[in-house]
Fold:
Amino acid sequence: MSFDRKSWEENGYVVIPNAVPQEKLQAVIDTIWSYTGKDANQRADWYKAPLLEGAMVNMSHNQPMWDNRQAPIFYEIFSELWGTEKLWVVLDRVNMNPPVAPGWDHSGFLHWDMDPTKAPEPMYQGVLYLTDTTAEMGGFQCAPGSQRRLVEWQATHSPEEGAPYPGTQGDWMMQKPHPIKDWVMDGLETKPIVGKAGDFVIWDVATLHGNGRNLSNRPRLAQYISLTPEGTTRASSLVHGGEELRQARIDSWCNGGYPGAVAAALGVPEGIASEWLNGILADPTKVMPLPAARYTPQLSADQLQALPALLQNAQPWNHPKVVYAQPLHKRYGIGGRFLAAELLSKEIAALLSAEFGLTFAPEPAQLTDLGEKLLGLKRW
Ligand SMILES: O=C(O)CCC(=O)C(=O)O
Structure:
């Protein structure tokens, strides 16, 4: 795999055309709609829950996403960039950014997934375009050349000069104005990166980047894909996690089907079950109310009524494995984001089996030989 090195050095991103064939893109698109329980053709559905901040969809384990992650082309691209063939996969998610509408205005953003006051370590991120994406569709955007300007800023300023302006609230990295962003952006422009379905955009972490405001009439759909050297993952910097990270990722792959199993028991889309599970992890009193069924639940009305008390009694959120997994996302960022909810749903599934005789046997996604190495199941 070779790509335009000169453009990469100059702009801090590069587009690799036609990385994935249409049927592999469509499979992920279909899964986004079923995961979120939305009908792609019903505009009103685009804005129904689940619709998370930043238009992110927290799904990560299904065959179509894994098929793309383990496609040899990404392995070739990232091996070339990292200069090593021993790579692991980041368990990343997807994006479904519907057009601006009353009640939904994702204004877009530019940020760094790193501390801009510190010298950038090598780090690469990537996004696969699932549909043709025009400039007004809220797709990937960046400030070409900002990765070089950031290094200039660091050479001419002290880290203290990069402190957020007084009074800045919330996550300053997502906001403007900011002293480093303002300096870096002086004379640069934000460029929406247009692409065809199947194009893959890869960028250097030091490039100011994000996604835009969708002013079109179609949702923007994309899958994030990145690989990092064996033993590491990507959080706000390259994180060395070794054995703990490998085990967590394998656990996540193994148990990735349980939130879907719990969703079927409750009669809700998996994305709704996932919000409920994460709500419980944040605050166990949120076990009530159960999410309202949208489909026929596997549980009867009586069983659903009995469930909250059963859960409060069994407290599956206090299972040692769930408790252990909960802070992992702080260490491993996106690489550890989903495990606690997956393990919680596995415990809930066990309770549903014991109490109501439901049976669950979710199969993990099938992996190729390369996929097994990227996951860490097989060692390089
Ligand atoms: O949605 C996109 O294309 C960019 C997302 C982004 O900023 C990120 O993954 O850090």
Summary: Residues 339-356 form the longest helix (18 residues). The mean pLDDT is 95. Residues 235 and 331 are 8 Å apart (CA to CA). The two ends are 21 Å apart (CA to CA).
